[in-house]
Amino acid sequence: MSTRLLPAFMGILIGLLLAAVLFVPYIARQYRRRGELGMGNLALALAAVVYGVSLVAYVLLPFPQLTPDFCATSGMGGPQWVPFNFLNDMKKEATGSSVLATLRNPALTQVVLNVGLFVPLGMFVRHLFGRGVLATTAIGLGVSLLIEITQGTGIWFAYPCAYRLFDLDDLIMNTAGASVGAWAAPVLRAVPGQRITALPGVPRPVTRSRRLLASLCDMTAYTMLSALGSSGGLLVLMAAQGMLFQGNAPRTEDIPGSWAAGLLGVWLPWFVLAVVLPVAGSSTSLGQRIVQLRATTVDGGAPGTGPRLLRSLTGTGGYFLLAQLGDASADVPALGPFSGLAQLLALVSLIGLFATAGHRGLSYKFAGLRIVDARTAPEQAGVARVPQR
Q1: 131-184: per-residue pLDDT in tens?
Q2: pLDDT score recorded for residue 254
Q3: Could you tell me the CA-to-CA distances from 123 to 36, 67, 134, 281, 375 in Å, in that order?
């Protein structure tokens, strides 16, 4: 991959991974602060995360290889302190006096790129965080200064000398770009799906998209907890090897003690999300709680332990259990059918969201429960409020 495409590719990839990590906390914050999500807000937040990571990737990547003669072959020398020095560079790079030749001048192209690179920063800062033009411009200056210092110090002395130049012109143009973005930020108001339909504390309808968003939050939370638990289990295993074998440990894959990764990465997240949270905590899944949904009995009361557990095991909790048993079929072939059962449960549950009144879903129907907005008053949560079959 070329050095020009690498920063863009890595920025988008890492940005999307970071967005996945922040997805559940972001949804929870939006529902607490606004009472609903709004797809426009989600799209702008995703764009801001990917842009931020891509900006860092662009100014730092690719990392050069550190060699004994690194400073002699890759070093950039001292900083460039002359303001608007790009005008001299344009004269040196000029290939003609026509307008087209001027527009193609590499020095001018670099200036335009530096301005354009920070325009999204100014737009996102002002629109998403509500800062004024002056504050947004100052933030752009601060971010640009941090980038220039990072480049001028060889990533804070990680390299013996700078492999990119500290350029005062870059600082000026980046700041100008942030200011332009601040003035252009009102354009982002045209993105649909940002305005709230009611005050944050007012109940909203239980819609299919809201139920699906809750399931997506459940899937994301389980995946993140599983990855975190697996990493923790691996660390436990490595520590145990160091203590028990004193550096002469057999290979990790040969040790039955890999149960630590399975316990912390598979079964503990499942137990917490599918059993502890619905039974001992709220009666809903984590995702449903995040999008402000709660379970009630038909008359609007609080569900008992049995219906709570049944709802979980016939919903996302059951899906996670079947999926993990299916994954274990590589070691125990008899568990192979569980993978198909997991997919069948997911399909039937999806159909249930469309086929049941009030988007109750099959898990709530099996448990004899109803699902309502968490902000609905108890006296309004009975069957007379929203009939569900």
Answers
A1: 999 999 999 999 999 999 998 888 888 888 888 888 898 999 999 999 999 999
A2: 47
A3: 23, 41, 13, 41, 34
- Separation CA 295–CA 156 (nearest Å): 53
Contact criterion met (CB below 8 Å) for 214 and 285: yes
Mind listing the pLDDT tens digit for each residue in 288-333?
999 999 999 888 888 999 999 999 999 989 999 898 888 877 777 7
| Number of other residues whose CB lies within 10 A of the CB of residue 25 | 11
CA–CA dist 131, 53 (Å, integer): 21
Query: DSSP for 44-78?
Result: HHHHHHHHHHHHHHHHHPSPPPP-TTHHHHH---S
* pLDDT-derived band at 385, boundaries 50, 70, 90: very low
For residue 89, how many other CB atoms are within 10 A of its CB? 18
Cα end-to-end distance, the chain, whole Å: 57
Distance CA 142, CA 138 (A): 6
Compute φ and ψ for 246, nearest 5 degrees.
Answer: 50, 50
Query: Which token pair is 276?
Result: 């502890």
Question: In which element (H, E) is residue 187 found?
Answer: none
* Gap between the Cα atoms of 329 and 373, Å rounded: 39
Q: Which of 67-81, 103-117, 178-192, 307-321 has the lowest mean pLDDT?
A: 67-81
pTM for the complete prediction? Answer: 0.79
Six token digits for residue 272: 């917490």
Distance, in Å, from the CA atom of 178 to the CA atom of 185, rounded to the nearest integer, reads 10
User: Which residue spans within 230-311 are E strands per DSSP?
Assistant: 293-296
The rounded distance, in Å, linking the Cα atoms of 136 and 168 is 19
DSSP summary character for residue 276: I
**312: phi then psi, degrees, rounded to nearest 5:** -65, -45
Q: Across-strand partners of 293? A: 373
Sign for the pseudo-dihedral over CA of 30, 32, 34, 35? positive
Distance from C-alpha of 140 to C-alpha of 9, rounded to nearest angstrom: 24
What Å distances lie between residue 133 and 144, 153, 185, 284, CA to CA? Answer: 16, 30, 9, 44
* 8-state DSSP, 188: G
